[in-house]
Amino acid sequence: MEIEHKYYHDAPEKGEKKWKHYALEFFMLFLAITAGFLTENLRDHMVEKERAKEMAVGLYYELAEDSIQISKAIERKKLLISVLSSLIETLDSVEVKKNTTLLTYYQASFLMEVDMPVPANANLDQLINSGSLRYFKNRKLVSDISLWDNIISIKFAERQETDQKRLIEEIKAVNRVFRPVLIDSMRSITFNNLFNGINLNSDIREAFAKTPAKLITYNVEYISEVIGWASERKRNAIVRSTSFLPAQLELIRNLMKDLNGEFDIKKD
Hints:
The protein is mostly helical. The chain has one domain (18-263). Helix content is 75%, strand content 0%.
């Protein structure tokens, strides 16, 4: 026995009101389109949110590396302060001819290197430019991420540019007083020690300190110029190691903490 089914989308029989039939059909079509739209929109939303998390994880590990580099930079600044203090003391002494040694050349070669850490920003730029920050619930985190982006693009960049400009003048001043060949021979040692945050071992230091070395000139004006640049570099190192860099390190650590709280990164 067959059962006859009556579907709402069948054409209305004689006597039925056509407008009810078409209204119902329109309503069902509207529901289908709306449901499809909402489903697709929800799927896109979930994909974008997952992508935001991926970028947040990338930013987290980017910040972790930045924190290491900035911590090392702080230690390098402390080394620089110590080295330049000794250089200034030697050059400013009344017996500068007698006190100048290979150690003095080693110390002066620090003026021919720049050391400003450059934070990574690949994941940071992607996160900001993609608009994915809208998926972050923690508004303070969003604000701090924008602040960090501003610090990288302005404060770090300004200091790096300033250092490069000063370096040109510092090299000129050093080469007017110190023998370039001897300075250059020291730079490989300086570079290695500076970027590894280590000073000369005691034996080498003692050997350098016992080896007399002459300057090109003992002109007071030229020597004073070197002292001036060394003093300026030392002041910058003090400010950066005690104020600027520690402040950025604290911001980074807070960002990492908040990112982990928002996305459970360590659990992943």
